[in-house]
Design goal:
The longest helix has 21 residues. This protein has a domain of 183 residues: Phosphoribosyl-aminoimidazole Synthetase, Chain A, domain 2 (Alpha-Beta Complex), CATH 3.90.650. By secondary structure, the chain is an alpha+beta fold. It is 35% helix and 23% strand.
Length: 760
């Protein structure tokens, strides 16, 4: 008799069921699916596969509404990563960019170094498992108040973990964003993104096919680290967050580097039928997904799984999230050749099972069947919920975002600018970027600008990469905030001269069982979808991270809704790549006008402590037209520098251009605007769809004529000066400047926050 038939009834108690994350209704569904009571191995497998992290049970319904197709999309959501066509490679054959963003939020709060490091390792595997060599990493990080007693430790650990893993693997980190807000005090966000390049005819997928084909385990041995990591990531933090430390995986970047090289070497042969990394839920999710995608079955001999600890049970082996492991289906007869490759790279290799036609997952251990589960209920037929959510009007009433009123008149615009530039959300990220190797691989062309840029090796092309989101906008108006997150990614790619191609995302939200949180999710996705359609910017991969809220000591409750966007674009000729730094004397123009409102602006928050008002609205048609105009002007060689206007408005954008260029600057606002809006609104308002451009005088008429032909607005606003170390604001040539500070003062303010905080 197999152990699936003989599992004692007392083993599965109501308490055990609850500990595994099941609702009573879900456990009834398990019983119905099996036609009997599960044993512990089966219960554990159902638990991780039906977790929010793996099944997307609260989000699948709404994710289906997102646009995912375009002529250049080779593979959209459903595989390990998204795949897009990027044109011919050095040999003239089509190439593809493969990319994805994922979260490692809960593990990084509990153990910041390993949580962040294994987040990088996991996303790297998602990309190279499809046949791509990783060429760039990016990230999106959210932390709580800098004066929170735990925050400095978290920031140091996360940054060190990202740098430690990425640097050792040899993949450059080329861009990212780091922001602070009290809503993340008890639940930080660590979202990691990887982009890789592959030949379009050598992309590998995860569908296990071919009855009798061998299933092979490669990489590191399996340990007890990370057990129930997926389940932990599908619940909010209680008071005992630190007690969950054993659920955090431990990474080894040097093994990951070996695994990349071994996999790519085997991929150069014809041996692989299917391949899948062991990420969340480890051996369970990888085997279930491979068999489900191939409409097959799978039989594994757990005695053959390489283990690094003695006495490991099938339950532990299947739920372990030990890092640097892959699962493959090989063609018959290719085992010895594949084994030789992995042993050469000093990695484990074991044939642990075979593909079947039963559409069941069957596990054997010590001569007994310890698991026999139909695959349908585990994956395709997993629970899917249409959770209640508020209408837009109901959400507005719940959120009670106050109108922005009674903003005092500024008495010193220069002092306001210095305070903004020194604030945690605008301060120089140099302390962070210096811990990341951005140049390894020798193909990095730009970091620290609106987007990171890496050369496609052996070609004239380059990939531009950005991560973007403004959570305070999403909280105040989820629909407009969702639109803005996509639009800003689009804008940042255009600013470096790239044609935006596709999006990956990491949808970080709180408890979906609360209608107000589900409302944030649904309406943000609606805004994202509308923006993607209008901008022809499809979503090809992504991740959902829910239950990001905490009752941990010192923490708040729900995070701000944070749909982090990773955008990828192509520059056909990287000699025309644009930066936000310029040389020599240049005129500065603003495309799109000055600010018209301070709602949800950093200025109102940092200077007057008011996080209020409606976020800026997005005119998607104008956004696309302006982006296309910027790209045309860059391609014609008219512009010397470009920078998009975002947090802090026009004045902050000009300050960042001046610091990057190491040039003095003067902003001369147009007097006609002063009758319409107060000066701080014009200078610090965060109206969307705007760019600052620097260009020599001889190109101005060409640009003005083209901008006018597109029905857009372009306004002269000042200069960048060579051999000048001042930053000034005045009302036209010859007027008295009411901001007159030195570039040195501006740079000191900009660099002070992280330096002083980390040295304290």
């Amino acid at each position: 008799m197999s152990s699936t038939d003989s599992a004692p009834a007392s083993e599965i108690t109501p308490e055990v069921v609850t500990q595994h994350g099941f609702s009573p209704e879900e456990y009834e569904q398990v019983l119905k699916s099996l036609g009997r009571e599960p044993n512990m191995v089966e219960l554990g497998i159902f638990s991780v596969m039906w977790s929010e992290h793996c099944s997307y049970k609260s989000s699948r319904l709404h994710l289906k509404k997102l646009p995912t197709e375009a002529p250049w999309v080779i593979c959209g959501p459903g595989e390990n990563a998204g795949v897009i066509d990027i044109g011919p490679g050095p040999d003239g054959k089509p190439q593809a960019a493969i990319f994805k963003m994922e979260s490692h939020n809960h593990p990084s709060y509990i153990e910041p170094y390993q949580g962040a490091a294994t987040g990088v390792g996991g996303i790297l595997r998602d990309v190279f498992t499809m046949g791509a060599r990783p060429v760039a990493n990016a990230n999106a990080l959210r932390f709580g108040r800098p004066d929170h007693p735990k925050m400095q430790h978290l920031v140091k650990g996360v940054v060190a973990g990202i740098g430690g893993y990425g640097n050792c693997v040899g993949v450059p980190t080329v861009c990212g964003e780091t922001n602070f807000h009290p809503a993340y005090d008890g639940n930080i966000l660590v979202n990691a993104m990887t982009v890789g390049v592959a030949d379009a005819d050598k992309i590998f997928y995860s569908a296990a096919t071919g009855v009798g084909n061998p299933i092979v385990y490669v990489g590191s041995k399996t340990g007890r680290d990370g057990i129930h990591g997926a389940t932990m990531a599908s619940a909010d933090f209680e008071e005992d967050a630190d007690a969950k430390r054993p659920t955090v995986q431990v990474g080894d970047p040097f093994t990951e580097k070996l695994l990349i090289e071994a996999c790519l070497e085997l991929m150069a042969t014809d041996a692989i039928v299917a391949i899948q990394d062991m990420g969340a839920a480890g051996l369970t999710s990888s085997s279930v997904e491979m068999a489900t995608n191939g409409k097959a079955g799978i039989r594994l001999n757990m005695d053959m799984v390489p283990c690094r600890e003695e006495g490991m049970t099938p339950y532990e082996m299947m739920l372990s999230e030990s890092q640097e492991r892959m699962l493959m289906v090989l063609k018959p007869g290719k085992e010895a050749m594949a084994q030789a490759i992995f042993e050469k790279w000093e990695l484990d290799f074991a044939v642990i099972g075979e593909v079947t036609d039963t559409q069941h997952m069957v596990l054997e251990f010590d001569g007994e069947v310890v698991c026999d589960i139909p695959l349908g209920p585990l994956a395709a037929d997993a629970p899917e919920y249409d959770r209640p959510y508020l209408s837009k009007e109901e959400y507005k009433a719940w959120a009670q975002v106050k109108p922005l009123e009674d903003v005092p008149e500024s008495t010193d615009i220069g002092a306001d600018l210095l305070k903004l530039m020194a604030s945690p959300n605008l301060a120089s990220r140099r302390w962070i970027s210096e811990q990341y190797d951005s140049q390894v691989g020798a193909d990095t062309l730009q970091t620290g600008g609106d987007a990171g840029v890496v050369r496609v090796h052996g070609t004239n092309k380059a990939l531009a990469i950005t991560t973007d989101c403004t959570p305070r906008y999403v909280y105040a108006d989820p629909y407009e905030g969702g639109k803005q997150a996509i639009a800003e990614a689009y804008r940042n790619l255009c600013a470096v001269g790239a044609r935006p191609l596709a999006v990956t995302n990491c949808l970080n939200f709180a408890n979906p069982q609360r209608p107000e949180i589900m409302s944030q999710f649904v309406h943000a996705l609606e805004g994202m979808g509308d923006a993607c359609r209008a901008l022809d910017f499809p979503i090809v991969s992504g991740n959902v991270s829910l239950y990001n809220e905490s009752k941990a000591t010192g923490g708040g409750s729900a995070i701000l809704p944070t749909p982090a966007i990773g955008g990828v674009g192509i520059i056909d000729d990287y000699s025309k790549m644009m930066t936000m730094g310029s040389e020599g004397n240049q005129n500065i123009w603003v495309l799109g006008g000055y600010g018209t409102d301070l709602g949800q602006s950093l200025y109102a928050r940092e200077i007057f402590g008011k996080e209020a008002g409606s976020p800026p609205s997005i005119d998607l048609a104008k956004e696309r037209a302006t982006g296309e105009t910027i790209r045309h002007a860059i391609s014609q060689g008219w512009l010397s520098a470009v920078h998009d206007c975002s947090d802090g408005g026009v004045l902050v954008a000009l300050a960042e251009m001046a610091l990057t260029s190491n040039l003095g600057a003067q902003l001369n606002y147009c007097g006609a605007f002063t009758d319409q809006k107060p000066l701080p609104t014009m200078l610090f308002g965060e109206d969307q769809g705007r760019y600052l451009v620097a260009l020599p005088e001889e190109n101005e008429e060409l640009l003005k004529e083209y901008v006018s032909s597109q029905g857009l607005q372009m306004t002269w606003c000042g200069y960048l000066y060579e051999d000048d170390d001042t930053f000034q604001v005045g009302d036209g040539p010859g007027a008295v400047n009411f901001v007159d500070i030195t570039l040195a003062d501006l740079r000191e303010a900009h660099q002070s926050f992280f330096r002083d905080w980390m040295e304290a």
